[in-house]
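Hey forum,

I'm writing up a methods section and want to include a predicted complex as supplementary material. The small molecule is NAP. I've pasted the protein sequence and the SMILES. Can someone with a working setup run it? I'll credit the forum in the acknowledgements.
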Amino acid sequence: MNSKIAVIGFGNIAKAIITPLLEKKLLNPEDVYCLVNTKKSLENIRKNYKYDINIFQANSNDSEIIWDCQFKLLSVKPQQLKNIIELKQNKGNLLVSILAGVSLENLIKRFPNHNCVRVVTNIPITIGKGLTGISWGDDIKEDQKKFIKGLFENTSKIYEFPEYLLDIFLALTSSGPAIIALIIEALSDGGLSGGLQKQLSEELVMEMISGTISLIKDTNITTAELKNMVTSPGGTTISALRVLENKSLRSALIEAIVSASNRSKEFH
Ligand SMILES: NC(=O)c1ccc[n+]([C@@H]2O[C@H](COP(=O)([O-])OP(=O)(O)OC[C@H]3O[C@@H](n4cnc5c(N)ncnc54)[C@H](OP(=O)(O)O)[C@@H]3O)[C@@H](O)[C@H]2O)c1
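Reply by user p_vandermeer:
Happy to help. Structure tokens for the complex are below, copy them as they are.
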């Protein structure tokens, strides 16, 4: 990538984005300038991180150097954003924010000398199976777009959106893993109730889910067709589905996604 990059907040998600780029030698460790808040994190990264990147503690004298980098990845928690103060610099540098729910308008107010881009990604990015949504701010040049896509394309599939769709993208893809984890847990408990050992029950649920997804993808059938295939008259599956309809599972899932999206809008 041949460019210096500053990472403001080198936590879980930032590491998941940057480490594979270092592994694949798409970034050189000496071109990565990271900032953390606490001495503990600073020392931990210096001692344990596999690559010899430049790492600084916020508010230390030498940390100002990160503002000289042309590209910045902002990856603090949304509630920590108030502590990040843009230092004086030339206009036109690029700031890519992965903060859940923080709007481009808010970013531009906070970082007026930067061209801002908003990115939403999700936790499977840590194993290279993420989903990343990008909303370009104003005046982003083609080479800058290429650079940003390069940061995420090794570890995720990229989707470009107008900003108003990022909240629902976030609800589905960032909150989604927690919803799926809860469904796996609940179905496994169902197996447990019927006498299966916990571990076996969970294994069966996960294999069943991944097999079902492969079947839909590989054979191109619709979800309705799959449901009909396994639901025979007066059988076990319709009995299970009747319970879920009675308990309004469908409606609960729809409302859960809408609620997560609305919550994201509140952070704007
Ligand atoms: N977790 C997810 O599933 C997920 C998914 C997609 C996007 N995101 C977004 O990614 C962002 C980061 O999440 P995360 O899970 O990676 O959080 P995290 O692990 O807590 O990382 C936050 C990092 O920011 C640093 N930091 C805090 N205050 C700072 C300051 N004033 N100056 C410089 N650095 C500072 C922290 O340093 P210390 O360690 O020293 O405190 C830490 O390195 C969030 O905004 C979140 O919305 C998260």
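Some notes you might quote in the supplement: Residues 176-267 form a domain with the ProC C-terminal domain-like fold fold (CATH 1.10.3730.10). The radius of gyration is 22 Å.
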